[in-house]
DNA sequence: GCCAACGTTGGC
DNA sequence: GCCAACGTTGGC
């Protein structure tokens, strides 16, 4: 049994919010459209079924953690890269050697209290969280077990 | 392989 | 809307 691991996934709520996920069939969605190699590597190689997910609203007012989700399907080729109608279409990616990957995530708990970026910054023990680092743009980030616990506590979840 | 130009992200 | 940070592209 591998220890559970934790991640932070960013989404712009105007595109897809935690409430959108909550209302989705089986509260589940395919996390597609990631087009950054470092994030791709995490999706393809690291995220495992059962891993915890902090659902982070970016480019939002306020930005912050809106919910908790879980990985329910590990990395698989992102279908949107092969679809000419999709914004994430990548003509250079071949089905035999896909370049981009997706996972499926299921919403698990709404936060009792939204954890704003300001609130995250106010917790010294979260100072090393990736999402707080200046210039950070990575949309898939690992979260430590200690950070996970703290953020859930700030969110009013057990 | 270098690096300038360009595009994107995301907080403010 | 601005702009810092940073990834990608392409000329050389």
Description:
With 158 residues, the chain is α+β, with helices and mostly antiparallel strands. The protein is 20% helix and 32% strand. It contains 4 helices and 6 strands, in the order βαβαβββαβα. The protein has helices spanning 18-23, 37-46, 117-121, 145-154, and strands spanning 6-11, 28-31, 52-57, 64-77, 101-116, 140-143. A 6-stranded mixed beta sheet has the order 2-5-4-3-1-6. The longest helix has 10 residues, at 37-46. It starts with 5 loop residues before the first strand and ends with a helix. The mean pLDDT is 94. The structure holds a DNA duplex (12 and 12 nucleotides).
Strand order of the largest sheet: 2-5-4-3-1-6
Average pLDDT score: 94
Number of helices: 4
Shape: globular
The amount of helix comes to 10-25%
- Based on secondary structure, the structural category is alpha+beta
- Please name the CATH architecture: Roll
Total individual domains: 1
CATH fold group: ph1033 like fold
List unreliable stretches of 5+ residues: none
**The CATH class:** Alpha Beta
Series of H and E elements: EHEHEEEHEH
What is the beta-strand fraction? Answer: 25-35%
Main sheet overview: 6 strands, mixed
CA-CA gap between termini: 23 Å
User: What is the H level of CATH, i.e. the homologous superfamily?
Assistant: ph1033 like domains
Quantity of strands, as a count: 6
The Rg value, from CA coordinates, equals 15 Å
């Amino acid at each position: 049994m591998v220890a559970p691991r934790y991640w932070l996934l960013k989404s712009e709520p105007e595109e897809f919010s935690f409430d959108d996920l909550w209302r989705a069939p089986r509260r589940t969605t395919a996390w597609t459209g990631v087009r950054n190699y470092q994030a791709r590597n995490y999706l393809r190689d690291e995220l495992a079924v059962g891993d915890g997910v902090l659902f982070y609203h970016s480019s939002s007012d306020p930005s912050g953690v809106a919910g908790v989700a879980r990985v329910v399907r590990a990395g698989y080729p992102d279908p949107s890269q092969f679809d000419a109608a999709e914004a994430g279409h990548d003509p250079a990616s071949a089905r035999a050697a896909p370049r981009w990957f997706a996972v499926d995530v299921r919403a698990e708990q709404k936060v009792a209290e939204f954890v704003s970026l300001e609130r995250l910054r106010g917790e010294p023990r979260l100072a090393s969280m990736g999402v707080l680092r200046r210039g950070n743009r990575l949309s898939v980030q690992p979260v430590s077990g200690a950070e996970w616990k703290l953020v859930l506590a700030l969110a009013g979840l057990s």
